[in-house]
Every structure is written in structure tokens, then in C-alpha cells.
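Both lines are retained for reference:
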Amino acid sequence: MTLFRQAAAAVANYQHEPKVWEVPIADQRTAARLQAAREPKEEVSVVEDVDADGVPCRLYRPEDALDGTIVHLHGGGFVFNDVDVHDAAARMLANRAGLAVLSVDYRRPPEHPFPAAPDDVDTVLAWLDRAGPALGLDGPAYVHGDSAGGNLALVAALRHPGRFRAAVLHYPFLDPTAVGASYALGAASGFDPREAAWYWQQYAGTEADLIDPDLAPLLSDRLGTLPPTLVTTAEHDPLRDEGELLAARIAEQGGQVTAVRYLGQVHGFWRHPTFPAAEQLLLHTCAFLKAQVRMTG
């Protein structure tokens, strides 16, 4: 397995960075927002912050938008990132897909452990049902997430069967037991498995939560209820095997799933334009979503 050039550079930089448990969470959140503020951002016809019954969200509406809304759930190990950090990525998603994007600023642990985040997503979906028509958001809904956001997107689709026309999950973070062989990639992958364990410790409110399918959705017996689902993984990602296991279980339970492994890539590449594969994955995502529009429209 060969790391592509940009991925190798990212891994080299990662080796010199402190681990997540070595720096105060508040400091890391501030640093991520400052870095995001320096990123170039595409213009989108309408960008506005909205209050979804107490859950802050940001709505992106491209010019001549198609009928439908992508509910985007950001990654960050459940602990980090927010709508500001994912602002540039959400803008690109809206522009490439030609669909409105609703980016959800769900509550994060350790201040708000499970099930605060999936409950916030439920609140947003209920708000979208009630307030969406007045905002022109009464068309079909799609759910999209990366890493921990992929977990939340999957849980939302499982909690609300039939609610979404399609789901897109980029290298989803799914398995607190970390039994996949890809965890043997270790810190040389640019994502230390010890960090994964730390994220689960922050997210779970109790030991019992770690076997709750709403936290660990690989345990769900309702994967066959999912809408058409795209699962993407990165070759050099400790989370690779759990994403691919999810795809296999969806298929085994009768669901419609497409699974693609991006060679030479590492965890987190989706939203960073320095990776050439990021734009390709974005276009792949949009092609998948638009195909669902054509097939059901």
C-alpha cells in the first residue's frame, strides 16, 4: 500500500503534532476555527444561519437549486469542529450538488455526551418538516456526513426510516471496539488509534452506551431499512475496515449500497482541497446524489 504524495505529507506533519488528549479541548476548537477562517471560500447564492428549534444550523442555497436538501453532519470525533470549521466544505458541496445544504451544529461532548448529538439531529429533522416549506425546503432530503458525522448521518437514517432519499457516509466512525484489522495501521496512518479510543470515551455517557446501536450503529439489525447509501473509505485509515464492514452488512440485510475505497488516501481527506482526491470524492458524492434525483424524480 502506497501513500499518495499529499497524504504522505499530511502523515509526516501529523507525527509532530500533539495528541488530542495533550491539549485542552477549548484550545483545539479555537485553533480549528482560526484555521478554517483562513481557508478560501466559494460564493454561494444564499448563506444564512438559522435556529432549528434551538439547534444552530447554517443553510446554503446555490443559485437555481434543485428540489431537495442535504442535511450535513460534520466530523471531528464528536468532540471537535462546527459549522464554521466545515463552512468551506459545505459551500463546495452545495455548489457542486446544486442542492441546498443544511449544516447542523449539534452539541458536542464532553460537555454534552451521547445521546445529545443524535437527539439534536432529530430536532433538526422535525423542524425541517415543520418550517421547511416556508423556507422552500420541502423537497426530498438527503443525509451526508464524514467520520463522526458519518456515524450521526447513519444513525439519523436508521432512526427515521424512509425519511431520506439517499445517504452518503465518508469514512464513518462506527466501532468503539476497534476490532478492524486496519487499526494495525497505527499512528503511521496519520490517525492514532489511541485517539479513536479517546473520542469514544468523550462521547459515551456510560459503558452501556458503547453497545447502543444509536452510538455503535454497526450493531443495528435495521441496516436493511436504509435508503440507497454511498460508503467511502480511505486505504490508509484505521477506520477503513469498519466502513467496509458496514457496507457488507447493509448488503446482507437487503439494503442498496455502493462502497468505494480511495487508494493512497488517509482519514480526513474529504474536506481538504490540498488532496486532489478531495475534489474527485466531492464530484463522486454529487453524481451519486443526482442519480437518486433522476431515479426517483
Remarks:
- Strands lie at 46-52, 55-61, 69-73, 100-104, 141-146, 166-170, 229-236, 257-266.
- The mean pLDDT is 95.
- Residues 276-296 form the longest helix (21 residues).
